[in-house]
Amino acid sequence: MGKGEGESLETEFASGTTCHGFNRLAVAKKWPHRAFWTVAILWGFGMTTWMISSRIEAYFKYETSTEIRVEEKYALEFPAVTFCNFNKYRRSAMTALDWYIYANSKLAEKYAFEADYDPEATAALRAAFEGFEANLTATYPGGFDFGNFTRRIGWELNNETMPLCLFRMKQCFPENFTHAFQSEYGNCYTFNSHHDEDSLSLQQTRPGAQQGLYILFDIQQAEYTELLSLNGALGVGIDFQIHSWYERPNVAQHGLGAGVGTAALVSMHQNELQNLAHPWGNCSNDRTLKHFPRYSRSGCEVECYLEKVLELCGCKPFSYPGNAVNCNPVDQVLCADPTIFKVASNFQKECGARCPEACQIIEYPPTVSYAPFPNYYMAQELASMYGTNANYASENLVGLSIYYKDLNNRLTKKNPAMTPSGLLSDIGGQLGLFIGMSTLTLMEFGEYIIFKIIQCCRKRKPKTSQSKESGM
């Protein structure tokens, strides 16, 4: 009786389940027929297991696909633009003491760089410049501040050095620029650098030069103090960088140059890159920086360098953010610079883990063309305006026109090659293709297992009762 009940349960399940093949096996009368369906069912389950395991393995590789599309916009936020003069210090503003400090700091920088920041050579240089350091201490009892020194005698942006500024054909002024230190250039100035997320940004609503930024600089070549013997800058003109407003500019590394006597036509477009966070990538959206309003990898790198320099030197480079004491020229050249060089040489170990890519990166790739400036009649006009000769414009003036050539956002977006829902769909597809299973079929198997357990428990009860009666 028990055996018959057991067979009827299996037969009932095989005949009624929605899993393909079992019902054919249940009604098969001859062994070849049964063997065929047994092999078919085993093959179906084997293929299903193999395919599902391969899809699960593919999912846990966390591979990505890249989507590229061009989005048409009615307006684009105008980027920040940082401008630097190739001349770091103004000749007319420098005293004999300033020249002494400038020359010695440049010589120390030159020798340290030539020695490749070797520790022994750096120690020897510190001994050689011991007198210079002592003079600084005696002259500035409260401590020499390289930042104040640079602000005082560095490049100034005013109505003389920037005689013309237009944005969307409306006049702009030096007050619309924000001061920014750059170690190589000293005083630099950023247009459209709003300080926080809530500040209003400038936008370009139509493509073309007339809707962008136009600036005329007078770099005042007579003020130049760059000397070949002191490894001075080779250019005469303006170095500039286009960047996102929340990023710290690095004009020496990413800048574009415009020499005197030229008009630079800079057309740009907007590229947006959207990266993925863990586990498909390593970008970060939730990291915050001490000195920058929004996370960027460049800002994180600066803060990493800053921490290392403060730890080893007790001061910071004057161009770095924060309220720590600025390094004097000797500490800057013989401690801060070698520390930054060492960290940069081993960046992945020192800063790589703490400075992943941002999840959203916006870039503004430029295309630059140059034209001679000014034309003959404009040179005569400018000569009468400045009260100089006609050559003054070609020797001192730089024109810059920066604008969007179109109002398209070129989006490059990384997507998971397989999402959790995609994995479930794949698993469902393999189950349906090879053995015709669905979620409800799994419930049928669960129901069968429960009934089987109940049946086994019922079979054991009579045996247990019988053994008790025998014992009595």
TrEMBL record:
Keywords: Ion channel, Ion transport, Membrane, Sodium, Sodium channel, Sodium transport, Transmembrane, Transmembrane helix, Transport. One of its GO terms (molecular function) is ligand-gated sodium channel activity. The gene is LOC106167923. This is Acid-sensing ion channel 5 isoform X2. GO terms for cellular component: plasma membrane. It comes from Lingula anatina. It is a multi-pass membrane protein. Belongs to the amiloride-sensitive sodium channel (TC 1.A.6) family. Coiled coil: none annotated. It is found in: Membrane. Its main location: membrane. PANTHER family: ACID-SENSING ION CHANNEL 5, AMILORIDE-SENSITIVE SODIUM CHANNEL-RELATED. It comes from the Eukaryota.
